């Protein structure tokens, strides 16, 4: 992908995502270019402590955690509190600065750039819609498979509607009319993701929902069967 740091969530233009982080909250809308409505993004949730849905992911992890698109660091903080070695990566310098100011380990880095300890992470997280990063789920997941350990898992928060399968050019807009530069994004539900993984080296091995949020755990194909006694 070209210039992975150039076009990303809420950046460029009036940088509403950065403004919301610096202001400590606010409501953003993730919308398709040329369309109205869009999905609301409550920044207060990103800046608050991990909730029950977040904790349901952390409870399924035993080893080191890499949070891709970590934002201001709530999941990294919760994973560390749970005794997991954790690192966050994000392309937003404002988000990474916010995490570091809280004493959290975070790097300004794209998932498509070289990352520390590639091939040794037991868990890689794509939460808060981050399966949309880059606008190409298969490419993103293939890259994530290079980063996890042979027995590692990729935890993905998917769209609550299982059949959702939609890529688009998006922008982020805040309540005061600030808008970001366009960036590629993708919304994907569990059924659509399962279909896309068919024939690949990865498979969905677990699904669950908490508080209206939907998650899947992905592992290398056959790994779950190999783990059975």
Structure explained in plain terms:
It is a single chain. It contains eight helices and eleven strands. It has 229 residues and is an alpha/beta fold. A seven-stranded mixed sheet has the order 5-4-3-6-7-11-10, sandwiched between helices. Strands 2-1-8-9 form a four-stranded antiparallel sheet. α6 (137-147) links the parallel β6 (121-126) and β7 (148-158). The protein is globular. The model is unreliable at 1-5 and 225-229 (pLDDT under 50).
CATH-assigned fold name of the domain at 50-166 and 185-227: Rossmann fold
Per DSSP E runs of 2 or more residues, the count of β-strands stands at: 11
What is the CATH C-level name of the domain at 50-166 and 185-227? Answer: Alpha Beta
Radius of gyration (CA) equals: 17 Å
Q: What's the CATH H-level homologous superfamily of the domain at 50-166 and 185-227?
A: Vaccinia Virus protein VP39
Q: State the major sheet.
A: 7 strands, mixed
Helix-strand sequence? HEEHHEHEHEEHEEEHEEH
Query: Which assembly state applies to the chains in this document?
Result: single chain
Range of helix content: 25-40%
The CATH architecture term of the domain at 50-166 and 185-227 is 3-Layer(aba) Sandwich
What portion of residues belong to β-strands?
25-35%
Derived from helix and strand composition plus strand pairing, the structural class reads alpha/beta
């Amino acid at each position: 992908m070209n210039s992975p740091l150039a076009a990303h969530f809420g950046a460029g233009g009036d940088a509403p995502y950065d403004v919301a982080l610096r202001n400590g909250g606010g409501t953003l809308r993730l919308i398709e270019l040329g369309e109205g409505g869009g999905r609301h993004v409550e920044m207060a949730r990103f800046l608050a402590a991990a909730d029950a849905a977040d904790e349901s992911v952390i409870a399924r992890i035993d080893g080191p955690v890499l949070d891709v698109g970590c934002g201001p660091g709530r999941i990294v903080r919760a994973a560390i509190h749970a005794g997991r070695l954790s690192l966050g990566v994000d392309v937003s310098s404002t988000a990474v600065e916010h995490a570091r100011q809280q004493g959290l380990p975070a790097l300004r880095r794209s998932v498509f750039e070289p990352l520390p300890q590639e091939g040794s992470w037991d868990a890689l997280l794509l939460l808060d819609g981050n399966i949309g990063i880059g606008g190409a789920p298969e490419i993103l997941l293939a890259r994530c498979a290079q980063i996890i350990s042979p027995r590692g898992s990729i935890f993905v928060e998917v769209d609550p509607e299982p059949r959702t399968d939609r890529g688009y050019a998006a922008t982020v807009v805040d309540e005061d009319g600030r808008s970001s530069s366009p960036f590629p994004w993708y919304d994907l539900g569990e059924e659509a993701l399962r279909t896309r993984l068919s024939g690949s080296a990865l498979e969905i091995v677990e699904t669950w929902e908490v508080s209206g949020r939907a998650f899947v755990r992905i592992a290398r194909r056959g790994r779950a069967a190999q783990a059975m006694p």
